[in-house]
Known about the structure:
The chain has helices at 10-27, 32-45, 54-73, 79-99, 116-119, 122-137. By secondary structure, it is mainly alpha-helical. Helix 2 packs across helix 3, helix 2 crosses helix 4 (79-99) and helix 4 (79-99) runs antiparallel to helix 6 (122-137).
Amino acid sequence: MRIFARTxxxxxxxxxxxIILHSGLDMTRVDDQAAAGLHGMATGAxxxxxxxxxxTFSRLLSRAQIxxxxxxxxxxxxxxxxxxxxxxxxxxxxxLYLKTPAMRREGSLRPSQQGIGVAKDVWLxxxxxxxxxxxxxxx
Length: 139
């Protein structure tokens, strides 16, 4: 496994890291009401999360985003590992988009006004898959 990221992998890693890290740091300051709203949206798509306390869920999500964002920033973090983590995270976001009808126009995969922010996260999936496929292709 390659130890250092290739130079051309750094711009997409930095772009993804900036967004994810910013979101994770912002989420450290959510109040109970915001945590409940975030948790409610997540449990609508992923019912197993309903057993978790909303504040605990928000804190764990925040920490996961901070860890992922930091890992993407570190050039010595193997791109295969960083890409796999990013792909998993983005897959979860897109699953939320697909499983929440209000985020899509009726009878379509096209985003509604409420879903446009999450639908745009498809680029995170593209970056993650690009890192994974490139590293697997080098083997």
